[in-house]
Amino acid sequence: MTTIARVELDQVPLLARPYFADGDPGPIVRSLAQVPELLTVALPFIGAALGPSAISFRAKEIVIVRTSALAGCRFCVQTHAVVALEAGLTSDEVAALQSCGPTDAAFHDPRERALLRWIDVVAGGGPVSDEERAAVLRSWSDHEVVELTAVVGATLMLNRYATALALPTAPEAVERLAQEGLL
Amino acid sequence: MSTETTDSVPAEAGPIARAVADGVLPGRVWMYANYHCNIQCTYCLTESGPKVTQRALSPETMLAVGEQARALGFTDLGVTGGETFLMPHMPDTLAALSANLPVVALTNGTLFSRRLLGKVEHLADCDVALQISLDRPDADVNDEMRAPDNFRKVTQAIPDLVERGITVRIATTVESIEDNELDRLCALHRDLGVPDSEHIIRPIVRRGRADTEELGVEAAASDLPSELTITDDGAFWGPFGPTVKDGVLDTDLLVTRTTLPLETPATALLGLIEGRPQGADSTLNIR
Predict the structure, then answer these.
(1) Which are the contacts of A93, defined by CB distance < 8 A and separation ≥ 6?
(2) Interface ipTM above 0.95
(3) N or C, where is chain B less crowded by C-beta within 10 Å?
(4) How much is the pLDDT for B8?
């Protein structure tokens, strides 16, 4: 398979070095490091959007896995399915997110159901109706919807990036998903 | 009314100009005009040779770099390669660059036929110095590291250029040199018309082909001059940055892929320098 070159660990550009301080940062960072000035602005945004914030770890991983599944991103689905398990989601919940199909059978919390409907609308493309916007705002505050929507957008950007460049999933992630029956 | 500080840097000068004036950021901006060369030196940083890809900067890009370098507050320009005079536009480009800032152009000195000498004659009236490599006072030892007949061509070209009023510098790149050999080399360059003030001696840096040949000194970024260096592949931490090993560009000293506007890599480089621990300046006399 043709894939994109990832910076070797002894060839890390100067501006990118802080992101390699703890070892191999993974294929997104290693590929973006080829353009260090892009890496240094992209990663703080990605970190703020996908990392710890006012939105719970669990809710963010619901957004990321579901969005990635809808976008058909193998790398992001597999990588974040493992993270979602660490965030406390069950294998059934992760499987439902991965399926692109109905999720009500796995998710019972009304807020999470509202969130999932919002993700499906936002990540699915096309117009967003006033009713759909009003529905999510009945369960989530304005600033939460802003952030959750930005997480969908950031995830979609990474979905297209990882899919287009055929980034490989870490073997340990694939192994964990196999153990959970999530492959 | 323009307010000026005591060191003649206008108060409204930008951060690059202030950093250059304060000695924080080196004043020279280098450009790799090309990567191909008519010879193949054993210690070449860029694995240059006749068969490598040119990866040339266009004259328009070089002039834009020169103009923007001056506007930002840099003080000097350097042009290197590859062999710079394989680029037919080089005499005119050097003259045009020197209208902005003083220029030093590196050349192996082997291409100065009567025709090329005629084309560079006008550089005598410009602020351009040609820096020519001459490593040893004896032809056989010199040519072993560089190319057959290199010594003869160089020792012929230097006085030809000096006679035309062109400033010539000599760069000697060696692992080590005995006092006696250095004395004879200095006597030689004086005979060729190049004074001691225009002779520099520098170590081989173990990068590129020198690494393959296991020559020279290991150097970290902090050992190398942090002169902003523009190439077709991006901007680097100094002219020792954009090296090539086994045909692959080294990126460990890459600063940005963006080269123009020059402010982008210049600002990034300054940020890296200011983040460098104090006392971590160049210590290996690499220049």
Answers:
(1) A62, A84, A106, A107
(2) no
(3) N
(4) 65
